[in-house]
Amino acid sequence: MAKLGRELAAKGVDVISLSLGETDFFTPQHVKQAAKEAIDQNYSYYTPVAGYPELRKAIAAKLKNENGLDYGFDQIVVSTGAKQSLANALMCLINPGDEVIIPTPYWVSYSELVKLAEGESVFIDATIESDFKITPEELEAAITPKSKVFMFSSPNNPTGYVYSYDELAALVKVLEKHPDIFIISDEIYEHINFLDRHVSIAEFESVKDRVIIINGLSKAYAMTGWRLGYSASNKEIAAACDKLQSQITSGTCSITQRAGVAAYEGGLESVREMKEVFLRRRDLVYGLLKDIDGLKVNLPDGAFYFFPDVSSFFGKTTADGQTIANADELALYLLNTSHVAVVSGDAFGDPKSIRISYAAADEKLIEACKRIKAGLSQLNERPVP
Ligand code: PMP
Predict the structure, then answer these.
(1) Residues in domain Aminotransferase class I/classII large (predicted)?
(2) Which domain holds residue 12?
(3) Do 61 and 180 sit in the same domain of this protein?
(4) Is the peptide bond before 158 cis (omega within 30 degrees of 0)?
(5) What angle do CA 245, 252, 260 make, to 5 degrees?
(6) In CATH, what number is assigned to the domain containing residue 51?
(7) Angle at 373 between CA 367 and CA 374, to 5 degrees
(8) Between β-strands 99-104 and 147-153, what pairing exists: parallel, antiparallel or unpaired?
(9) Does residue 385 fall inside a structural domain?
(10) Is CB count within 10 Å lower at the N or C end of the chain?
């Protein structure tokens, strides 16, 4: 959708893109400064595969100070992004035929990475009625003797849900009964969380040794293009990820790593400011989306997305006689008619919904919601004769 939106914009159409999974903020000044200094100080050589020791130590300190978690620096493997850390973990853990339990909706790459690792995804379908969260019973029911990994993100992309301590504790109770299942906990949206605090499933000592935390700089420090992620896990998994990564990418960019040290050691001021802006935008967009007839929308507690159920528009007809059959077609309709780019839920395993990102300026958000409302209200109940 981002590509189609850009193509339309290149033809002179005023497209508002709410399709991308990245913040519209700039990288904090002190982080940029550290990168400039790294260039001048000749940080231009290969780095250790798992990252500079000072960066891994800074990440271990972050996990201790911000999350109350004890990890040695040798349990941290830095990569070229949370995506690579997810890939490392899955490739290391999954043998052909192993099952990976994934609640839907999920971030697009999860199921594709499982395929690459020759595993089988087992989906637990969650709906907007439960804020897209799964129950312990649903988790229990998905477990089979082949289950190897349970993988989820909280705060979540694409739905914005955030698991509370009690909700995670209930899932942990189930996982305690199945000691062979590893838990991949994608915490990349950790800081865009409107609840009291971020809870990591690694806080539960009974499962911590089999948790692989995935995180990175992309969202918290507005550094998607810099490419820095990491995993925190037990030492055996960390060593396996290091070994795998050494054959694929080697250590990530030296300049980025030095910038990463500055980010993790530089305090959370920029992160807090960004969160405040996202909270304000969330409330703004929620008010506007709630006002659109036929759109089923819930209030997300984190990330920067809405994931409304749009199934009430399926079967309706556009002004030129096309019937909207699914979320893909609705997203295309909104792009071509309302000139707003959103993403079909299909890619996230939920064909009833669309994802709307609110990582855009207020006036753009207001205008986009106005256009979406107008576009949807123009759909007709019955095919035009
Ligand atoms: N996990 C989730 C849930 C994401 O939304 C994203 C990015 N959209 C990633 C991982 C990948 O992040 P990175 O840029 O660090 O590879």
Answers:
(1) 14-372
(2) 2-21+270-375
(3) yes
(4) yes
(5) 130
(6) 3.40.640.10
(7) 90
(8) parallel
(9) no
(10) C
Long-range contacts of 117-125 (CB under 8 A, 24+ apart): 117/87, 117/90, 117/91, 117/93, 118/94, 119/90, 119/94, 119/95, 119/148, 119/149, 120/146, 122/147, 123/349, 125/349, 125/350
Query: What does the pLDDT look like over 172-210, one tens digit per residue?
Result: 999 999 999 999 999 999 999 999 899 999 999 999 999
Lookup result for tokens 């996202």: 278
- Give φ, ψ of 150 to 5 degrees: -110, 125
Q: How many domains does the chain have?
A: 2
Please name the residue that has the structure tokens 């988790």.
139
Residue whose pair of structure tokens reads 């997810």 in the numeric block: 86
Give residue 82 CA to ligand 1 midpoint distance, Å: 5
Residue at a domain's end among 267, 286, 313: 267
Which range (24-38, 190-204, 302-316, 369-383) has the least confidence?
Answer: 369-383
Q: Is the ipTM of this complex over 0.95?
A: yes
Cα–ligand 1 centroid distance for 215 (angstroms): 8
Give residue ranges with CB within 6 A of ligand 1: 21, 81-83, 107, 153, 157, 186, 188, 216, 218, 224, 229
Name beta bridge partners: 124. 103
Distances (CA, A) of 193 to 60, 168, 179, 239, 344: 21, 15, 30, 31, 24
In the β-sheet with 120-125, what is the strand arrangement from edge to edge? 76-79, 229-232, 211-216, 182-186, 147-153, 99-104, 120-125
Q: Indicate if 87 and 128 belong to the same structural domain.
A: yes
Ligand 1 centre distance from Cα of residue 83 (Å): 6
Instruction: Pull the structure tokens for residue 321.
Output: 């006689």
- Alpha-carbon torsion angle 292, 297, 298, 302, nearest 10: -100
Tokens of 82: 């949370």
Q: Which of 106, 191, 218, 231 to mutate to test the pocket of ligand 1 (most atoms within 8 A of CB)?
A: 218
CA dist., res. 167 & res. 357, Å (int): 25
At which residue do the structure tokens 């290969």 appear? 46
Which helix (H) or strand (E) is 67 found in, with range? helix 53-67
